[in-house]
Amino acid sequence: MAQLGWVAGPITLLLFAAITFYTCGLLSDCYRVGDPATGKRNYTYTDAVKSYLGGWHVWFCGFCQYVNMFGTGIGYTITASISAAAINKSNCYHWRGHGTDCSQNTSAYIIGFGVLQALFCQLPNFHQLWWLSIIAAVMSFSYAAIAVGLSLAQTIMDPLGRTTLTGTVVGVDVDATQKVWLTFQALGNVAFAYSYAIILIEIQDTLRSPPPENATMRRATAAGISTTTGFYLLCGCLGYSAFGNAAPGNILTGFGFYEPYWLVDVANACIVVHLVGGFQVFCQPLRRLHPGRPRLAQDLRALQDQVLIRPRRSALVYTLGLIPYGYGGIMIYYSRFGLSEVQLYLKIL
C-alpha cells in the first residue's frame, strides 16, 4: 500500500480479486469435459489443458504451473523462516532494549522448516491434509486479526508517518529507480496473494458430488476471495495509515510493533503454522510427475517416491530458499507474474 498509495492500492486489490474470481469460475468449469455432473474428470491442471487445448499448450502451461509452485514454495520457506526468527528478535528487543543488535540468521530456521516439511511429505494426498488445512486457515485468521488490531490501535493513538494518494514520493522517500522497482514488487505481492488459483482443479478434485463440483467450487471461491480481500484491505489500509510511506513490508516481522511483544510472537507463530500447511497444499501437485507403470513397479515406485523423492523435491525448494534473499526475491517475482499470465491463458481460451 505504501508503494501504490490510497488510490492505486485499493483499486489494485479489488481488480485482482475480480479477475481471480471470474477466471476461477471459468477454470472450475474445466474440471469435467462436457456435462458438469457426469463428464470425464480432469484430475489436475495439466489434465484440463490436455483435454481442452492439447499439443504444446500442455508443456507450456504445465511448465508455468510448476515454476509457480516452486516460486511459491520458496516464498513460503523464506517468509516462515523470517517469522520464526522474528519471534526471537521480538523477545530480544523486549528484554535488551530496542537499540540492541538482535539480528538473526534465518538459515537454521529454513533448515528446520525443511525437516518438518519432509515429514509432512509422507502424507499421500490432499484428502489426508484436511486437518492441516483447517489449522492453517485458523492461523491465517488469527495473525490477520492481530495485525489489523495493532494497526488500528496505532492509527488511533499515534500515526507514525505521512500518507499520500500516490504512495512513496520520488525524491523524498525513494529515488525514481526504487519507485519503479518497488511498485512492480507491490504488484507482484498482490498477484501472489491470489495465487491459489493455480491449484484450483487439484483442490476441486477433493469435492464430492452432487451437487456438481463446479457449483460448489464457485461458492467456495466467492466466499474465500471476498473474505481474504476484506482482510487484505484492512491490513493494507490500516497498516498504511499507521506507518505512512515508511511502512515496513511486513508489519509483524519488520517491527512496526515492538509491544505487546507476546502478541507479536503469537502472530508470527501463527504465520509459521499457516505456512507449514500452505506449503503442503501448494506442493502436492509436484508429487504427480511420474508416468504410469505396471502394478508391482507402481507399488515399489510409490514407496521410493514417498520416502526418497518427495523430500528431495522439497529439499530443492529449501536449498533455493537458502540463496541470498535478493535472488530468491527475483525468482518469486517472476513466478508471481508467470502465475497471472498462465492463469488467464488457459481459462479465457
Descriptive notes:
The protein has 349 residues and is mostly helical. It has one domain (5-348). The protein is 70% helix and 1% strand. It is built from 11 helices and 2 strands, in the order H-E-E-H-H-H-H-H-H-H-H-H-H. Strands 1-2 form a two-stranded antiparallel sheet. Strand 1 and strand 2 (40-41) form a beta hairpin.
Shape: globular
Largest sheet: 2 strands, antiparallel
Q: Could you say which structural class the secondary elements and strand pairing correspond to?
A: mainly alpha
Oligomer: single chain
What is the number of strand segments?
2
Low-pLDDT windows of residues: 290-309, 330-342
Major sheet strand order: 1-2
Q: Provide the domain count.
A: 1
What distance lies between the first and last C-alpha atoms, to the nearest angstrom?
32 Å
Assess the beta-strand content as a share of residues: under 5%
How many H/I helical runs?
Answer: 11
Summed over residues and divided by their number, the pLDDT gives a mean of 77
Rounded Rg: 21 Å
Question: What order do the helices and strands follow?
Answer: HEEHHHHHHHHHH
